[in-house]
From TrEMBL:
The chain crosses the membrane at residues 20-40, 52-77, 127-151, 157-176, 251-269, 281-302. This is ATP-binding cassette domain-containing protein. It comes from Virgibacillus salarius. The lineage of its organism: Bacteria, Bacillati, Bacillota, Bacilli, Bacillales. Keywords: ATP-binding, Cell membrane, Membrane, Nucleotide-binding, Transmembrane, Transmembrane helix, Transport. It is found in: Cell membrane. PROSITE patterns: ABC_TM1F, ABC_TRANSPORTER_1, ABC_TRANSPORTER_2. GO terms for cellular component: plasma membrane. It is a multi-pass membrane protein. Its main location: membrane. InterPro entries: AAA+_ATPase, ABC1_TM_dom, ABC1_TM_sf, ABC_transporter-like_ATP-bd, ABC_transporter-like_CS, P-loop_NTPase, Type_1_exporter. It comes from the Bacteria. The keyword Membrane applies.
Length: 582
């Protein structure tokens, strides 16, 4: 149970001064809180024996008021210091998770679904934060504060009465331990179910157009209802155990009160205790209720925190498949890119996506990559971006092995426009500025002209300041592609990768964008993967992939003369274009 504190040892070591101060202040506040009951008993005894004077009563009242002020000040200090520490932990953990997500490769996101990652970044972090704040409070109150109360009861009143009143404590320890184990198991299942539900909701929101198009709203609502029912039932299982804590504690506290009052009254009748002592003892028994409750709360909070920390640590302990080399080699400029007998299979698959691919690219060349769907075009780009490990063969940049270069340097060279354009829920200006943070409006308008988006922008309600919505929902497929192109163009990258990035635009627009590309990137390297061959006819070199193997290569004229797949596909597309224009 207490292993969660050991797992968070790195945080407590860093902020040990804060926690030592908070705990000492908490103990002092608790000690001050033990004085008023003693004064109350002392006053009652003076009343009983008719020895209470006005001077003494005034001193008692002033003392009470002074204790209230001191207790308030110290309580504020420990409360602020302790719980602000818990907030810092949550912030640290959330930052670590975010940095971890950004460093991860596609295989990580294939293993962990978005909804589950969101659950770990929200609910689980809240449970961990609760452990570092409320958990520490309950630990101190259920141990030190409880011992302080028991010591006051025993040393200043009666050990016999104290021991008799605390008989229910061992029973409580056994019961709470069993409750804690049950809470841990059930809370873990509840959090997993919550993650599944999160993921389902995200998919439904993203795919709402498809759901409506296929009239699947009712089925999706039923599926969601089933998932919410599952989450509800698992949380009810947690709540059932949670609900046992308070009544169990009340029964045990009630037993303590019964023993305290019964046996205490007997000791008063026997003149072993005074009436004031009995009143003080029962006030202490009342004060003992919270520490006894705190035992249950401590177990509950620690088990939840432990389960959540295990889930978060499991995510953080996932090692990135692709890492920076220990001593990265620096390459000042990209003069050439070489693929030498490159073969590759995606993780958990036996089929090879690339087989013995070799390609030489000189700076300033435009390379076209074509082939059937699934031929391996995107895979080449992913390897150039170093998104996957375990590649056979070698990719070199300016003669240096790609694996010897830092990830930051590799990706700083590249402007990448993938097949599925990602638009952030920001303005068009902000989406384009991802390519260049300090880009001016003049620069943005220029790249939008290159991407042939200026006419579209005039029709948008707020121009550059138009919000694109969740994943660019307010833009059409062609508009999203051209904003993504502008984002890559404004970076003016050494290597530009267009992965079927013109598929959603018409032929005339494509021709204009390609013409702009030829003029703007004369001394820069460009890779273009496309299904529409008109996008690559201008390329210096074109490779045709089939099942991960280069089956044809050359420029456009050479490939047409070879009378293979390229020539057949080109003629077919030319015929289709004539039919459309005709």
């Amino acid at each position: 149970m207490f292993s969660v504190f050991r797992k968070l040892n790195w945080f407590f070591k860093h902020y040990w001064k804060r926690y030592v101060f908070a705990i000492i202040a908490l103990i002092i506040a608790s000690a001050i809180g033990l004085i008023p009951p003693k004064i109350a008993g002392y006053t009652i005894d003076h009343i009983q024996f008719e020895t209470l004077t006005l001077q003494l009563l005034t001193a008692i009242i002033v003392g009470y008021l002074l204790l209230i002020v001191i207790h308030y000040a110290i309580s504020y200090l420990w409360d602020y210091t302790l719980f602000s520490g818990a907030v810092i932990l949550e912030k640290w953990m959330r930052s670590n998770l975010m940095q971890h997500f950004l460093a991860m490769t596609p295989s990580f996101f294939g293993r962990y679904r978005t909804g589950d990652l969101m659950a770990r970044s929200t609910n689980d972090l809240k449970a961990i934060s609760l452990t570092a704040g409320f958990g520490v409070l309950t630990l101190v109150d259920s141990s030190i504060f409880m011992l302080m109360i028991i010591a006051m009861m025993g040393f200043t009143i009666s050990w016999k009465l104290t021991i008799a009143s605390l008989i229910p404590l061992p029973i409580m320890a056994i019961v709470m331990n069993k409750y804690g184990a049950a809470i841990h198991a059930r809370f873990t299942k509840a959090q997993e179910a919550f993650g599944e539900m999160n993921n389902d909701v995200l998919e439904s929101i993203r795919g709402v157009r498809v759901l409506r198009a296929f009239v699947q709203e009712k089925q999706d609502a039923q599926r969601f209802q089933a998932m919410t029912t599952d989450v509800y039932e698992k949380n009810i299982e947690v709540a059932k155990i949670d609900a046992l804590f308070e009544p169990t504690m009340k029964i045990l506290v009630g037993l303590s009160y019964t023993i305290g009052l019964g046996y205490g009254a007997f000791l008063v009748f026997e003149n072993i205790l005074t009436l004031g002592d009995l009143v003080t003892f029962n006030v202490y028994l009342g004060m003992l209720i919270w520490p006894m409750f705190a035992v249950g709360e401590l177990i509950n909070v620690l088990q939840r925190g432990n389960a959540s920390l295990d889930r978060v640590n499991h995510t953080l302990n996932y090692q990135a498949d692709v890492k920076d080399p220990t001593k990265p080699v620096h390459v000042s400029e990209v003069t050439s890119i070489d693929f030498s007998s490159v073969s590759f299979s995606y993780p958990d698959t036996e089929m090879q996506q690339l087989k013995d691919v070799s390609l030489h690219v000189q700076r300033g060349e435009t390379i076209g990559i074509v082939g059937k769907t699934g031929a391996g075009k995107t895979t080449i780009f992913k390897l150039l971006l170093r998104q996957y490990p375990d590649m056979k063969g070698k990719i070199t940049v300016s003669g240096e092995d790609l694996q010897h270069l830092s990830l930051e340097q590799i990706r700083s060279w590249i402007g990448y426009v993938p097949q599925d354009q990602m638009m952030f829920s920001k303005t068009i200006r902000e989406n384009i500025q991802f390519g260049k943070e300090d880009a001016t409006d003049e620069e943005i308008f220029r790249v939008m002209q290159l991407a042939h988006f200026l006419d579209d922008m005039k029709q948008l309600p707020n121009g550059l300041d138009t919000q694109v919505g969740e994943s660019g929902v307010t833009l059409s497929g062609g508009q999203k592609q051209r904003v993504a192109l502008a984002r890559a163009f404004i970076k003016d990258p050494e290597i530009l990768i267009l992965d079927d990035s013109l598929s959603a635009v018409d032929g005339k627009t494509e021709a204009r964008i390609i013409d702009h590309l030829r003029k703007e990137r004369k001394n820069k390297t460009t890779f273009i993967a496309a299904h529409r061959l008109s996008a690559v006819t201008h390329a210096d070199h074109i490779i045709v992939l089939e099942d991960g193997v280069i089956i044809e290569q050359g420029n456009h004229e050479q490939l047409v003369k070879q009378q293979g797949w390229y020539q057949e596909q080109y003629n077919q597309q030319q015929l289709e274009d004539k039919e459309v224009t005709g």
